Amino acid sequence: MAEWAAAAGSVDQVLLASPRSFCAGVERAIAVVDQALRRHGPPIYVRKQIVHNARVVADLQARGAVFVDELDEVPDGSLTIFSAHGVAPAVRREAADRHLPVIDATCPLVTKVHAEARRFAGRGDTVLLIGHAGHEETEGTLGEAPERIRLVPDAAAAETVQVTDPSRVSYLVQTTLAVDEAAGIVDTLRQRFPALTGPGSDDICYATTNRQGAITAVAERADVVLVVGSTNSSNSRRLVEVAERADARSHLVDDVGGVDLRWLAGATTVGVTAGASAPPGLVDELVAALTALGAREVSEHTTTVEDVSFTLPKEVRQP
Ligand code: SF4
User: Fold this and answer.
1) SS3 (DSSP) at 250
2) Ligand 1 in reach of 276 Cβ (< 6 A)
């Protein structure tokens, strides 16, 4: 009660970062599962979480989607969906060998990074993949040429990573990294390997870049920032870090139930954003709770207007 009173007494303003929440790749991936369930009925098997968000996964599970870690959990002949994060060629081969009917919900911007990996490795480069170990996206990209791609997870690794031939080195970046951090790592690699080449256009996707830009602007004016997203969501976790670098105390919450009222004590302005995999409805619930706590003003701070959309795979496209 005392915590509630302290929070209620201070919060005056909610600043919503825009853009926030779903990106085009996540909307497409969720629509793939939705359409597959409508057309074929449950069960539909999905390799890995379709997107990294607990609410999205729970909602689809309730409708008959079955999330599995690997294809050996999928019964023969069952319709199988690959998640937005992409898969290694070995996974595609396994599905083909088993004649599984597959719909690929890989985000087209992840597919672009895979194509670059094949191109760079194919011309004989050592490819330095800047990304997080164990993340499904990096595992998929590494699988394009495991013998030629080396993972560079952080700035320390950029100082020590070894390459076969320093005149033939290229880099790629996981789509959901922090823009500023990745730029620093690329600088380090370029100093060590002056012949380093990179992708024609940035690998960090438009949605990651835009959400980080928007929360930076909001964090500069907020006492506390709340990021809606799941703990396994890379882009959501980066939003927390980016807001902290802009000097706002920052917390990741799956939904409004995850907010610790002690975080809000003494905070006048609360910044709010959501990772690219977090549904907009979860932000609405959080804003409603902040308003109930006494926030008088809810305003939106827009840094970019997005108009990106991706067509659905042919298997689930409307005729
Ligand atoms: Fe695609 Fe970027 Fe969204 Fe990932 S965050 S699904 S790469 S648009």
Assistant:
1) strand
2) yes
32 lines ligand 1 (CB under 6 A): no
Could you tell me how far CA 192 lies from the centroid of its own chain? 29
Domain stop point among 88, 104, 120: 104
Cβ of 278 less than 6 Å from ligand 1: no
At 200 the pLDDT is 81
Residue from 175, 273, 308 to probe ligand 1 pocket by mutation (most atoms less than 8 Å from CB): 175
Report the Cα 249 to chain-centroid distance in Å: 21
Atom of ligand 1 nearest to the CA of 235: 5
Tell me how far CA of residue 203 lies from CA of 145, 172, 181, 182, in angstroms: 18, 7, 14, 10
Give yes or no: residues 6 and 46 share one domain. Answer: no
Report if residue 155 sits inside a domain: yes
pLDDT digits (tens, 9 = 90+) for 233-248: 999 999 999 999 999 9
Crossing angle for the helix pair 234-245 and 206-219, nearest 10 degrees? Answer: 30
Query: Can you give the pLDDT at residue 201?
Result: 85
Ligand 1: centre distance to CA 229 (Å): 14
Bridge partner list, 300: 16
Active site residue 137: yes
